Amino acid sequence: MVPDLSRITAVTSLLGDPQSTYPTIHVTGTNGKSTTSRVVAELGCSHGLTAGCYTSPHLLSVTERLSVCGEPISEDEFGEEYERLLPVLQQVDQLGPDRVTYFEVLTALAYLWFADKPVGLGVFEVGMGGTWDATNLVSGDVAVICPISLDHPELGATTAEVAAEKAGIVKEGKVAVVREQPPEARSVIEARCREMEAQLLVEDRDWGLAGRLQGVGGQVLTVEGLFATYEGLRLPLFGEHAARNAAASVVAFEAFVDRRLDQRAVEEAFGEGSVPGRLQVANRHPLVVLDGAHNPAGAEALALAIRESFTFDRLHLVVAISSNKDVQGIVAPLAPLADRAYAARHSSVRSAPAEAVRDALATFGLDAEAFDSVGVALEAALSAADEGDLILVTGSLYTVGDALRAIPSTSTQGEG
Predict the structure, then answer these.
(1) pLDDT under 50 in the chain at which residues?
(2) Which domains occur in the chain, in start order?
(3) Contact status, residue 334 vs residue 303, Cβ threshold 8 Å
(4) Cα 393 to Cα 380: distance, rounded to the nearest angstrom
(5) How many CB atoms lie within 10 A of CB 96?
(6) For site-directed labelling of 226, which of 103, 274, 314, 379 has its Cα 20 to 30 A away?
(7) Whose CA is closest to 158, among 173, 148, 168, 169?
(8) pLDDT at position 415, please?
(9) Which DSSP category does 311 fall into?
(10) pLDDT tens-digit readout, 73-102
(11) Which helix (DSSP H) or strand (DSSP E) does residue 193 occupy?
(12) Which CA distances in Å does 60 have to 41, 191, 347, 392, 405?
């Protein structure tokens, strides 16, 4: 990450600042950003707005990152928008020593496509951090800050340093909806809100998840919002972390429209909840669950959700992790669940060696075999699994993408 917004600012300036033509809700945090962003966008659409949603990364196709009311951008539209962008990108590349980055290009394309539709609301998930993220040119009428923990070393060595980067999306005079945070992160966020004279809405103080029951294929929630309590909300996602992110989405949209939401519209939005790569059921016989947990906090939430939401005889753990991640910290909460483990490399050049993952699993008493790819490791797990077993594939969203490519005929759209 380079702390520099000059390139994306130059691009948007030449385009006429398309990101300023619609109101926005901006979402950051270490975990939970995609779920929160997608549910916020669904809430916008169910209340009659044309809502665009920009998330990252993608699993199989870059077009997954941009959608309007649940419909991803088509390849034709993507090509048309990029063709419009290209002369501007080339012009900006000539201005300085550094070329426009991949993420900056995609963010500019999202800014432009949403303006062209046009949308009545743009929901933007931060790529990394906040202050220096290419998405931070939006107005951020509502900022949502999901739980913060250590993840990308580029953002800081302490939780407070990471929080300072992420709190940079809070804009002057706007609203900040804040999920549960470590004390050191919360104090940084509170200071930022005071500095920006922004309204601070904190989970379990100003709003919260008031109830949660397990249901078939998900859970049923009660959300205590700013203006009302919304009951009987069926969310087809698993885990308490997903429920709390969905509750934050309700509050963010309440804050955006500054009124009580329509109960039926909230129910409709929750029913459309789909987050590929997050506790996604990709196969039934045996059960295969995919999750992109790529830091210790995400792995802990995943372990809790697996215990709570699924029943199984044995668990087969297929894991591949990026080399810049805390391999030991990711494996620690998952290893106690596993009866067998399969260490692998994922398809990114940043993948940790399978042997490094195998060695981390061994420290927790799991005798894992190392595989050259996620596909081969998953094939071994499928061969070893019985009907009542569960195969969990995790460690990175790259790992999830590899698994989806390996079982395309049996994969389902994200259920969690």
Answers:
(1) 409-416
(2) 6-271 (3.40.1190.10), 280-406 (3.90.190.20)
(3) yes
(4) 12
(5) 12
(6) 274
(7) 148
(8) 38
(9) -
(10) 999 999 999 999 999 999 999 998 899 999
(11) helix 183-196
(12) 21, 39, 12, 19, 8
The candidate with the shortest Cα–Cα distance to 239, out of 293, 151, 335, 307, is: 307
Burial class (CB in 10 A: 0-12, 13-18, 19+), 363: exposed
List, in sequence order, every beta strand (DSSP E) within 250-389. 280-284, 287-290, 315-319, 340-344, 369-371
* DSSP string over 374-399: HHHHHHHHHHH--TT-EEEEES-HHH
pLDDT at residue 97, as a whole number: 87
Summarised one tens digit per residue, pLDDT across range 259-299 is 999 999 999 999 987 788 999 999 988 999 999 999 999 99
Q: How many residues does the chain have?
A: 416
pLDDT of residue 275: 87
CB neighbour list of residue 391: distance below 8 Å, 6 or more residues apart? 283, 286, 287, 288, 289, 315, 316, 318, 378, 381, 382, 385
Q: Give the pLDDT score at 1.
A: 59
